[in-house]
Design brief:
alpha+beta, 31-stranded mixed sheet
């Protein structure tokens, strides 16, 4: 708004110059002699004006003013310097109280904006609505009609300094406008400029065009056939088109919104009710979205190739994308619905992605986040409570038919487990960073794994080894596969402080009924599971080993399996020492009893033979 007022002030100032020119042109007054008076007039309005170049004018066919190198500065306004400015005024229109510029052309403008802490708080302060005073923002009232037939800003440069002295430079700015007016007639505006991203060396070119209509009575601004394009980032051209309608302090709408980037397209509508209570509605539908590797490279450069690990840092504030828009709603409501044909990142592809989100004051609810991934489906709901200093989260997830191998290969670089997974999980947590949310997560669930195949261990071989030790015989030299195929595995589990506790699990392998319990430490990527195998028969499986000892059959033989999920981690499965010790004691005891009974039987037989001899 300040830039608009400065622009209007400059137009008025130049109008005065043009009128003065017309008055004194015929008597040959040099316009440069009025530089001190113009600088003094500007000073009285808090603006520093220095006209270093020459001033010249012409009278026919239009009243024209040409200004050479000029500098403008002042408190709370940008520093502006331009090499040349040409203004052509329809002086006949002045008779009808209309300031009509035939042409405004400014060449080589250099604009510097220095932000202050107070200036950066304007946006935050403007969102606060007090009960004692209502802000009355309106379009600036002018004592005359303003029209510009042609506007040209050529080869301008904009430099912005933040309070931290970070510098943003926008170069090669070219602004064009045709038939600009404030009397409800459409006029065209075009803008082109080039800038640099801090982490990307190639210039980014931006082009904007639109048909604009000002409705003074309704205090609305309409943008029609608006187009925006961004080029320069490798494999990431962006094109946006939309119609917009802004009703001052009441409503902002976007219709026929279309966003295109490479092969991705998204369409939809959006509206923001500005009157209290505020309300935001967004509905979007898109095609296949693949997150470009270019964005990941830029992010890596911004963090020197390392992920941010500072707890509580702005870069790691997981909920900030949600909190920031809610602050603009000032306690209002919102509804966002997004449908994508697919979304892919890091070779993970999610198909038929659907998001349905509602918010009311400081409560955010995701009523549906669903899609297809790893040959299965997922569905999640989430409730986020931001009313306290520490956000609280409650969510539930359901997955069906997930290909375990594809999931682990993509997410954890593991390829030793195959099968399909279905699970339900409900949990709560609190925190504002990813680390704290994971640390504070507490929940429970159930899972079913079908056609399960472990490539890390062979449970049947471990069982046969344990049985051979008990039976005191050598294990046959058969070839064992380096994996375990299990029947359906069912279990319930709980999660607390990144430790998954499995109170019981059931499965099977051949003639072995398998059960067990254990824990998985997600933070340390380790596991410790007790597997109990109970043989129903005299052979573990058709291709397994025979079991002769009846003391082993129909009895739980425990195997302690522990190891690490890390790429260089180890895995081992050994019989429980206590069980082996107890089983050996029972075996020795059984043999002693058998020997004792056999010895008594032999003694009885000898006595019987002696009696018969007599």
């Amino acid at each position: 708004m300040k830039l608009l007022k400065v622009f209007i002030w400059i137009i008025c100032l130049l109008s005065i110059v043009a009128i003065t020119t017309a008055s004194f042109l015929m008597i040959g007054v040099d316009p440069n002699s009025y530089k001190p008076e113009l600088s003094k007039l500007a000073k009285e309005n808090g603006i520093n004006l220095a006209i270093d170049g020459d001033l010249s004018w012409s009278f026919f066919p239009n009243l024209a003013v040409n200004a050479g190198a000029t500098s403008i500065s002042g408190q709370n306004i940008p520093e502006i310097h331009f090499e040349q400015a040409d203004f052509s005024l329809d002086w006949m229109a002045l008779l009808s109280s209309t300031v009509r510029f035939k042409t405004i052309a400014i060449y080589g403008a250099d604009i510097t904006v220095k932000a202050t802490a107070e200036a950066e708080n304007i946006v935050a302060a403007s969102t606060k609505i007090t009960s004692t005073k209502k802000q009355n923002a309106s379009l600036p009232a002018l004592p005359f009609e303003l029209a510009i037939d042609g506007l040209n800003l050529k080869n301008a440069k904009l430099t912005i300094f933040s309070t931290g002295q970070q510098k943003i430079i926008v170069e090669k700015i070219n602004l064009t406008g045709k038939d600009l007016n404030l009397d409800e007639k459409p006029f065209s505006v075009g803008l082109k400029f080039s800038t640099l991203h801090p982490g990307y060396p190639t210039p980014i070119d931006v082009t904007f065009s639109s048909q604009i209509i000002f409705h003074g009575k309704e205090k609305t601004i309409a943008l029609e056939s608006t187009k925006l394009s961004v080029n320069g980032i490798e494999n990431l051209p962006i094109a946006v088109s939309f119609n917009a309608n802004y009703q001052l302090d009441k409503l902002l709408t976007l219709d026929n919104l279309k966003f295109t980037s490479d092969e991705f397209t998204i369409n939809g509508d959006a509206s923001l009710k500005l009157a209290s209570p505020r309300a935001l509605n967004i509905k979007l539908s898109g095609t296949d979205l693949a997150l470009p590797a270019t964005l990941q490279k830029i992010d890596q450069k911004a963090t020197n190739g390392e992920p941010p690990h500072h707890k509580g840092s702005a870069a790691q504030a997981l909920l900030s994308p949600i909190v920031a828009p809610l602050a603009l709603l000032e306690g209002g409501k919102s509804h966002i619905e997004i449908n994508l044909a697919s979304f892919s990142v890091d070779q993970t592809v999610i198909s038929k992605l659907h998001l349905n989100l509602f918010s009311n004051n400081k409560i955010v609810e995701v009523t549906d986040l669903s899609g297809e991934v790893f040959d299965g489906t997922f569905q999640a709901t989430t409730r986020i409570d931001l009313s306290n200093s520490i956000p609280r989260i409650k969510f539930s997830n359901t997955i069906q038919g997930i290909d375990i191998n594809k999931a682990l290969s993509s997410l954890a670089d593991l390829s030793d487990i195959n099968g399909t997974l279905s699970a339900d999980f409900n949990a709560t947590s609190q925190g504002d960073t990813q680390d704290t949310l994971i640390d504070n997560m507490h929940g429970a669930g159930a899972l079913l794994a079908e056609n399960l195949k472990f490539g890390m261990i062979n449970v049947e071989q471990s069982y046969c080894k344990m049985a051979s030790i008990i039976e005191k015989r050598a294990l046959s030299g058969q070839s064992w596969p380096e994996y375990t195929e299990l029947q359906n595995l069912k279990t319930r589990f709980s999660l607390d402080k990144q430790i998954v506790t499995i109170p019981s699990l059931t499965s099977g392998l051949g003639n072995l009924a398998i059960s067990g319990d254990g824990q998985v430490n997600l933070k340390e990527q380790t596991y410790n599971v007790l597997i109990k195998a109970n043989l129903k028969g005299d052979r573990t499986s058709e291709a397994g080993c025979p079991i002769k000892s009846k003391s082993i059959r129909n009895k739980d033989l425990p195997l302690r399996c522990s190891g690490s999920f890390a790429p260089d981690g180890s895995t081992r499965c050994l019989p429980e020492k206590e069980f082996i010790t107890q089983l050996l004691k029972e075996t020795v005891k059984e043999k002693l009893i058998n020997n004792l009974l056999n010895s008594k039987s032999d003694a009885g037989a000898e006595n019987s033979e002696g009696t018969q001899t007599k």
